[in-house]
């Protein structure tokens, strides 16, 4: 079984080499961001997810394919399978009931693992907001992480998990730059000096502010821009009660 799992990891690593993702940034510290999860549909990279419970991953509702989803946990380098990484089938999917695929409103989904993750120094859960009003504030500095293209929109992915500095912008500021599509269920962040920005296919990458998960990269970053307009994230704090209810009842 272990040999089969490692063989699958090798194939997934080869598939990862064809997928562009984050723009710029720096290599995440080895002991940080151990909650990032690479989600695959078959052998094709689909989205980034976040481990929020030993049995549950949080990602985007529009990352819900018809085919089988797999999760790779504890992997820093998608091109070189790590023996400490964990491969899991995704058992059940719970898109938010009011998800609107046309507008990307409520673009959030919980996915249950077929077998619990083994938490270690390589695999950890992220902290969630304690209540719906514990949300990131404008001008708050956050970290965005994911496996993304550092320089070019269609360039090769980096060898390792990348991080970058971004700053939350106010709803009014974001709405001025993005007059269509923005809702109160979304939060915006943009690059700061020496920071990073999200890029094509970086769907679901976590936005962590003061150690708490506050956003999942949803839309607006397909241009791989270095500046305005801000990138749009699902505002995780708005869904904390739903997240807890789904986990508790399933």
UniProtKB/TrEMBL annotation:
GO cellular component: secretory granule
Gene3D superfamilies named among the record's database cross-references: Trypsin-like serine proteases
Keywords: Disulfide bond, Hydrolase, Protease, Serine protease, Signal
Gene Ontology BP, a term: proteolysis
PROSITE patterns attached to this UniProt entry: TRYPSIN_DOM
Molecular function as annotated in GO: serine-type endopeptidase activity
Signal peptide: 1-15
One Pfam family from the record: Trypsin
InterPro entries (UniProt xref): Peptidase_S1_PA, Peptidase_S1_PA_chymotrypsin, Peptidase_S1A, Trypsin_dom
Family: Belongs to the peptidase S1 family. Snake venom subfamily.
Protein name: Trypsin-like
Organism: Alligator sinensis
Lineage: Eukaryota, Metazoa, Chordata, Craniata, Vertebrata
This protein's encoding gene: LOC102385661
